[in-house]
Task: structure prediction
Amino acid sequence: MGRQQQVLREVVAGLLRDPRLLAACAERDMGALFRLLNHRGVSTRRIAAAVDITQGRLYDYMNGKSRVEKLSVFEQIADALHIPGHLLGLARRSWEPQAPIPQKSVETPPNGDDLAAMDAFRDADRQAGGGRLYGAVVRHLHNHVGPRLVDARSGLQIFAAAAAFTEMAGWMAHDTGHDELAQQHFDRALPLARTSGDLTLAANIAASSSHLALQTGDPAQAAHLARTGLENVAHGPRIPSLTARLHTMHARALAVTQQHDPAVRALDTAHTVLGTSVEAEHPWISPFDAAALASEAALVMRDLERYDEALAHAEQAISLRENGRARSLALSRITLVGIHVQRADLDAAVHFGLTLLMTSPNLSSIRVVHQLEELRATLEPHRDYPPVRDFLARFDDAARVRMLLLADIITPHSGGILP
Result:
């Protein structure tokens, strides 16, 4: 390695705790990274030569005309400049130490205003759905969190806050039916969490990404993400709710691929872990309780075609959610009705379906709308049975009312959701 390459790496090493470099890496904005190096006196010729790109391409990145997108180029830059892989959302590079990255101590406590905003958004989301909250969360992220990423006084904890709000934006995008947008938010949240040094938060984001992979039909990726999350939680304090959530996501991925015994073992582990003692509270991770576990367990058993057990879990989820969390209650009731259909108990499906139709018709969750449409499709083949035919008529009436109430977040021509 030449002397110039060594000098460039020394410049980068001196910036590894600089908020500007951390922000550029967290956003995967290589143009900002190159501008920072250039401002530190490194010529564009030397930067281009070090990372093996043309100066023309480098200028395009620095001027914002294009962005680095390919994984191989991120790896090339990380290895050339000795930027630790986790800062760019990459695997540990071959030149990095073998020991796992330890949890960094929090330099400053979480900002109280950030925590209050997070709690307020979560409460509103549970009751009303994320359809009308997505824009507010993104604005909060851009206006109140983002600017502090480049303020050295904020410490690394601001990256944890940014990761948490970015993950929340991902969930709300998912709730509006924009799964590609949700994936973009989750992909941005993970390097922010890693930059903060908070592996527990990174594991929480992996659990969310695992859920999304299941929803988009990629159980192999869902299983991989759940395992990655479990590896991360092993290096942090014991938080049973998060560990149980990751085991549950793993169980769901295994169940979709009909791996019966491993799926049941993973689900049993989740039940066992959830009842253990808590070592520490974490301000940013998503809640996961007995009701959430029961709801997911119903889906695991449904996919394994163990319908009696699935039914018991679905009933438990509903009983635990009876007094709150409108979206979770609606999703559990959809699962319950679907299980009755699969058990060929059409009278029970109609009975509980009528209760479902009364569940928060103004809930701003397109995810619920889509699952209702899927439920209707499972009932349609049974419309020759008079109770089912009557129910479908009432279902369609309720659906028209629901769509009118959601007209402000649904475009009339494409059926798409306005972000």
About this structure: The first helix runs from residue 3 to 14.
